[in-house]
Amino acid sequence: MSAPVIMTVENGIAVIEINNPPVNALSQAVRSGLIECVREADADGAVDAIVIYGAGRTFIAGADIKEFGKPPQEPHLPPLISEMEAVSTPTVAALHGTALGGGLETALGSHYRIALASARFGLPEVKLGLLPGAGGTQRLPRVIPVAKAADMITSGAMIGAKEALDLGLIDEIAEGDDIRAAGIAFAQDLVKAGKGPRPTNARPCNPVTSDEMAAIRAKVTKAARGLMAPVSCITALEAAVSMPFEDGLKRERELFMELMQTDQRSAMIHVFFAERKVGKIAEIEGVAPRDISQVGVIGGGTMGSGIATSALLAGLEVILAERDDAAAARALETVGKNLSGAVKRGKLSQAKYDAIMADQFRTTLDYADFSNADLVIEAVFESMEVKQDVFGKLDAICKPGAILASNTSYLNINDIAAMTKRPQDVVGLHFFSPAHVMKLLEVVVADKTAPDVVASGFALGKRMGKIAVRSGVCDGFIGNRIMNAYAKAINGTVLAGASPYDVDRAMENFGLAMGLFSVADLAGLDIGWANRKRMAPNRDPRERYAEFADKICELGRYGRKTGRGFYVYEEGKRGGTPDPEVLEVIAQERAAKGIQPTEMSDQDIIDRYMAAMINEAARIVGEGIAQRPLDVDITLLNGYGFPRWRGGPMQYADTVGLEKVLNDIKTYQKEDDYFWQPAPLLEQLVAEGKTFSSLNG
Ligand code: 3HC
């Protein structure tokens, strides 16, 4: 293996190349190579300036995340950067690709920075439950305004080269695309101009008033909602503002090490790797996806229009089929509205919008127009008969090799595929509403789905900017099956003593944006009610069915759209208010069933909610519906609002301990022996002393 850091000296310029593919992360070998080269160059009397750049697609993408959680190895990054900053030879960081985290901190420790126009810069440590721990919180506010530094550090968002230049983060945008040559030319100009080192730590921190700083803290703390890293970022920035550089650096290090020990950090790093692993499945390794350029969408309701929008934004040509002219016109309008939303948010130019609406998108009343489509996604009414009819028709019309996909949320894809003579081309593509916004895509693989169709589902997800997760076939697939389980547990929790308002408060404090009952009110209670009525004949008589949600619907309370659901909604007010009428309905059911309500703390509620989620997820993994626990985590995080900093239900289970979860389930079993049956996989892992993460591969 070649050295990850090499240096050449050309005409008085020492050029240090970092070559640690894929993203030049600052592994121990890179750190030691870098500091040795800098020392050697600084000691070399023939060297007038030093240039540091990254080989391949990018400058340095940060510390090597794989080393986190292991014993730290010298040389450590903070003293390395300080030593680099102190050299007497002017140092230039020549940046391309993404200079992130420790990479940007290395650049800030260099004396000058130039970049290609395409380069981007950021301190994304906060997204890993950390703060920039190699001087980023101390040096950045010495270079750019404090408020902007706070924004970059607490959001982790990247900025482009133009903004970086305007802010003074970089000195120059280089022309062309040869960063090495640009770095050398810049260094030669420095030497010619007689410019020496310009250490960032010698600059004062940019001015900020204590009122401004207090306002920044208040805003960040409010938005953090239980997340520690953003608040610690502000504490580190306050140190930059109020302390000498060296003291601030020490404070930053302490805060970094504190965060390093937290479950939040482990959870967020788990998510980082899980999101990259979720698409790596044996079935599609080395399998080329089919070419997709024209997509048919059937159904122009909220879901179909969202799917069409997503496909259009991904650059695909879309034909949307509706039943009649009026429905087609409504679909056209909805897609147009979705796309203008993208224009408003700056995600799409007006010119691109016009081009999409003129050339990329049309509606039809005739499935015959799908004869040339590479993929057809149906998003029609959730009924097996209706879907089977659609697939029979598609089979007759679509060209050989076209992928036929169903967006069903619950139905059996095998039964749908059976209506065609090409079950190998049939797959479930389960989008989440609103489909042009939500990140999750479940790729539901039926018994006969061909591997290149699965690969195409993943490729489509990537092209649409989504995170695709593989699911096997079962009622509700990974996500909705788990949601049904925890919804039942929550209903049981309400009968046992909690109010819907207690549940929502507990869930929101746990980190969800909204509690289950607020979400239900928003979605419309009648939808779930209709579903429950449909399922009623199949209900097992042993199930302890909670009736209060049906009773509330019987009162005409369908949620927000009727002004009353679990909450009462007043015109002009954002949230709902609790309603004694709802509590009375619940109290009556408890009385009828002879249930003595007990006091429930937020933790009691969360324990039940999580136990149900984890137990069902363990079944799903045990049955092979999800191949790995990480597939469950990614599903819940991207489709169901599970807080990212808790890492997903399986990571959460590992954190609290599987034994505790199993014990909780056994306790609840005494109350309801039908629902609370421990999943065999959970029992097995507890018996073997293993974690879910041990199954992630
Ligand atoms: N350390 C180790 N591996 C990393 C890494 C890092 N910092 N960044 C990316 N990788 C790995 C990925 O896991 C992936 O590995 P795989 O091929 O085995 O799955 C590979 O590099 C390519 O990454 P992506 O698939 O994400 O490639 P993209 O081109 O989509 O994105 C990127 C590239 C924008 C650099 C993205 O990988 C990214 O955001 N990386 C993380 C950056 C980051 O968080 N840096 C801060 C680290 S913490 C730090 O620096 C602490 C310091 O303050 C002390």
Mean pLDDT: 96
Q: What is the level-2 CATH architecture name of the largest domain?
A: Alpha-Beta Complex
What ligand molecules are bound, each kind once? 3-hydroxybutanoyl-coenzyme A
CATH topology title of the largest domain: 2-enoyl-CoA Hydratase, Chain A, domain 1
- The N- and C-terminal alpha carbons lie at a distance of 26 Å
Helix and strand content put the structural class at alpha/beta
Largest sheet: 8 strands, mixed
Helix content: 40-55%
The tally of beta strands, per DSSP, is: 19
Strand order of the largest sheet: 12-11-10-13-14-15-16-17
- Under CATH at level 1, the class of the largest domain stands as Alpha Beta
CATH superfamily placement of the largest domain:
2-enoyl-CoA Hydratase, Chain A, domain 1
Strand content: 5-15%
Q: What would you report as the Rg, rounded to the nearest angstrom?
A: 28 Å
**What overall geometry do the principal axes of the alpha carbons give?**
globular
How many DSSP H or I helices?
28
Regions with little confidence, pLDDT below 50 for 5+ residues: none
Domain count: the total is 3
Provide a descriptive summary of the structure in words.
Residues 476-569, 605-690 form the 3-hydroxyacyl-CoA dehydrogenase C-terminal domain. The protein is an alpha/beta fold and 697 residues long. The chain folds into 3 domains: 5-261, 2-enoyl-CoA Hydratase, Chain A, domain 1, CATH 3.90.226.10; 292-471, Rossmann fold (3-Layer(aba) Sandwich), CATH 3.40.50.720; 479-695, Orthogonal Bundle (N-(1-d-carboxylethyl)-l-norvaline Dehydrogenase, domain 2), CATH 1.10.1040.50. It is 49% helix and 12% strand. The chain is built from 28 helices and 19 strands. Strand 10 (294-298), helix 12 (302-313) and strand 11 (317-321) form a beta-alpha-beta unit. Helix 2 (77-85) packs parallel to helix 3 (102-109), helix 19 (500-510) crosses helix 24 (602-622) and helix 24 (602-622) crosses helix 27 (658-669).
